[in-house]
Specification:
The chain is mainly alpha-helical. It is 68% helix and 0% strand.
């Protein structure tokens, strides 16, 4: 591996891990006694202001960095087939096997899932019908990855300057917010106007990171202090307005500064989770539900006990499964599970 790029890869790895921790944490407030799953908590909305934009941003960054910066650019067909294998197979498998027990447990869960062919079909294609609610991220990611990769390939073949390519991409994704149409929930299209911009920003940062990093001293004390202050000010002034996207961008920038500081000062508290973020995303819902909704029916603990159990179990039970697969990568059961989860068992850079 090129050593001059190694710190940059670690910084992105830390962004991925920080993102998945925030996602699991955000799904762990179900038993907060406000009747709205913690929605009345300010900390919930503080995290919400940038956690999914951060997740989408990292996806866009990795799309460009791993395919166009590293020289491993593939044909659109090969790229699409790879993403279908990695994203669509685990999505379909987990949604399908979860649908039936989820419908049988409708009396325990918050809402009813009818046991019918129509309900099953809708649960596979509509983001507001999913039995694993936050799998809309897989739908949206697959859509953006395939579409934007195709756009970049075409622009590259036409020899369009990289700057012009990125400007058109950003303008298009930003303009979706103001289209006079209602986007359907089919394949998470309704999320595209809200989150597509951050994917484009991730692509642009990967394309121009050397220039951007030369002008922004991410690890300087002034920047590290200024970014969270601006993010907080924006949150309390414009977050619930049409300028919400600006607050989210500063939240992402704050995370970039934080993770670059961690790399610079060799703070490796995330190292043990490296490579496990995808399997944590895929499996954490089961732990969230088990530690909150199901456990709550048989015990009577304070709400924060369920939250902590959900957070740590949602992160570390899938992580243990990942470590087990790494330890036995060539055994047939392990290979079968890894294939179904779209999980690569190659070790990530430490």
């Amino acid at each position: 591996m090129n050593e001059e790029k190694r710190p940059f890869l670690v910084f992105i790895t830390y962004l991925q891990i920080l993102g998945i921790i925030l996602v699991v944490f955000g799904h762990s407030f179900h038993e907060y006694p406000d009747g709205y799953y913690g929605y009345s908590l300010t900390v919930y909305w503080l995290l919400y202001s940038f956690r999914m934009p951060l997740f989408i941003f990292v996806s866009g960054f990795l799309l460009y960095f791993t395919n166009f910066t590293s020289g491993r650019k593939r044909k659109w067909r090969h790229f699409t087939l790879n993403k279908l294998k990695r994203l669509l197979i685990p999505y379909l498998v987990l949604e399908a096997v979860t649908f039936f027990p989820r419908s049988w447990m409708s009396g325990v869960a918050d809402d009813v899932v009818p046991l019918s062919v129509r309900s099953f079909t809708e649960s596979l294609f509509f983001s507001d019908r999913l039995v694993i609610p936050y799998f809309w991220f897989i739908q949206l990611s697959l859509l953006l990855l395939v579409a934007v990769y195709g756009y970049l390939i075409v622009a590259d073949r036409l020899h369009i300057p990289r700057g012009a390519t990125m400007i058109v991409l950003l303008l298009f994704l930003f303009s979706l917010r103001y289209w006079p149409v209602t986007f359907p929930s089919f394949w998470a299209l309704d999320r595209l106007p809200l989150l597509g911009l951050y994917f484009g920003l991730g692509v642009c940062y990967a394309a121009f990171h050397e220039v951007i990093d030369a002008h922004i001293r991410w690890t300087s004390p002034a920047i590290a202090l200024l970014l969270p202050i601006v993010w907080l000010i924006l949150f309390f002034t414009v977050y619930y307005t049409e300028w919400t996207w600006l607050c989210s961008i500063f939240g992402i920038a704050m995370c970039i500064s934080l993770t670059k500081l961690m790399v610079r000062h060799n703070i490796g508290i995330f190292n043990h989770l490296s490579g496990a973020n995808y399997i944590i995303f895929l499996l954490s819902w089961y732990l969230n539900v088990g530690c909150q909704q199901m456990l709550h029916h048989y015990t009577d603990f304070p709400w924060w006990v369920y939250t902590l159990l959900s957070l740590f179990a949602g992160i570390y039970v899938p992580w243990l499964a990942y470590r087990l697969m790494l330890r036995h990568p060539y055994q047939r059961p392990t290979r079968a599970i890894a294939f179904l989860l779209g999980q690569s068992l190659r070790r990530r850079p430490q």
